[in-house]
Amino acid sequence: MPEDNTPLSPTKAREMADSLGPLVVDLRNRRLPINERWLLFHAAYTGRATRVQFKSEMFSHFIPAARRAVERFSVRGAQMVVPSADFFEVFPGDIDGTEGDAEANSIRSWLRYVWVKRIKAYTFARTCFRMWGIYGRVITKSGVEVVNIVEKDGSTTKQVWPTARVVDPFAFYCYPETVSDPAKMQVMVEDFMLPWDNYATLAKQELVEPIDRKDLTTPEWPDHHVRRLQEQQLTAPTDAQSTEKSEDLTSFVSISEVWMRRDGHWQKVWIAWNVTGGARVVRHNPRPFPVPPYRIALARDLPGEQYTTGMMDDLEPMQVLVNDQFNITLEGQVTNFSPPTVVDPNRVYRHSSLVYRPRAKWLADPEGIKFFEPRDIPRYAFQGIQFTLGLMDSFSGSNPLAEGQPTRNMPRAGFAVSSLLNLSLADIKDAAQVIEDCIFTPLLGDLYRLTIEYADPRQIVRIPGTQDWPARRFSVSDLVGDWDFQWVGSLQAQDMQVKSQRMVAVLGMLGKIGPTLLQDLQMRGKKLNWEAILKRIWRDGLGERGLDKIVEDMTPEDQQRLQQMQLMEMLAGQSKGKGTGGGAGRPASVPTSAEESNRQAARGASDPTPTT
Fold it and tell me: Which residues, at least 6 apart from 413, have a Cβ–Cβ distance to it below 8 Å?
């Protein structure tokens, strides 16, 4: 693995800290209004009242309808992006080439192991859709992870594996805010708290500048982080009681990872904030990176804007409305249950007996007590609640058709149901398409590039076997090549299968008119590439796996056997043509069967000798 840190002189480190530190602080302050809006969304999702219009004397309930809509959206979106174990494909650079199929299987098995066992593809996808629903954006970061493997003989070897994670949008800042493509930004910053034990480990590996434990001060946790913890009745982690023996476990180093653009490439800098003497640059990598490690997908993207609206911008006001509707309805029910009462104090023998409860006995003159009859409004209130909840459920695609319960007089099978279901899930399909194009498909290439760039070419990759996948063992150098990656969710899988079915129909048509078509193409100096047709049908229908076992090169023995069979057929055809009758009294010039006629037509240009 190449060196990831270049020591800086004290003067250069101070100059870099003085130039980047104020910029990071300014980026945080510029984003404060956006943070306030996101904190409202987070409070609504976690079940905390954000705003209220109706002030009830008895009820202040919070109905988590917005969270329910976001969760159903997240689950359906994740199942759409990761519909099965085969959720991506690896294609050779030359898709119609005769080589690369076996290597593609190795790439695919390795990448599938990374996504399923190490990154957890379904959990990763569900988190992405949850971020999309709450904050209207998804930010991911790819990197490498060094793992120590203990061999059977007791020795330890280091392996480098690619990794990816979803970034907290509160902790990510970028400049300028007028572009959404990471490749066109100038500065990207991510704040995080690194435990002191982890920092000391990195210092021993000479990846960061060493810091004396006594020089650390108490870190200042971001306001958005503290407020989110307070919603769950928690305090900042550094507020935990500790002793001198446990300070290494409860201490944190506040760090900002800054990625800045220089001459068309990217450089990485770490700034430590809670150090005596002010901010300090503790990690600097001037090695140019061709692409940034972050990927961003935005909901409702607009040119010239990055902080656009999302699903929660619509759900949070509806959440306030439905809370008020429920509280107003409950208030009306209580009013109907215990209506206002007019009591003549001169006709009540004991005022303490006037209590609303079942089977109560009042010591009063019935003529001195009158009950009002308020209007029965809960019925209309529940209609309003049902309308608001239905509008909120529409964001998650919740309707009778999507729930598998079509209404009366609606079709239950066939093309019509498929079309209606696609229309009902249009919003989720749009989000899935954007996340696949902006996040998942590029991440496949990023993980492959990071492995080839940082892993030792001699590193042995061991992929455990399963029922459908045999165990594999190969080196990183075997993965080097020209490959094209594509994430295949349920949308792309359906399109590819439809295309494959159409190509199968075309293949059947070519088989029926094959001899005539071959003759016409040979007269024009052309021919059909049957291998390419079969590969396309196999790839679109079943993927790349196993293609090298279906269409493979012939061995010399197979070629010799085929030539012998062709020679024997030719000699048999000539001997029949020179016969004296051909059976059943037919003349010698007439073929004895339809099969012989088709064989002669197919031989056409290659065997022009007529039969006599």
Answer: none
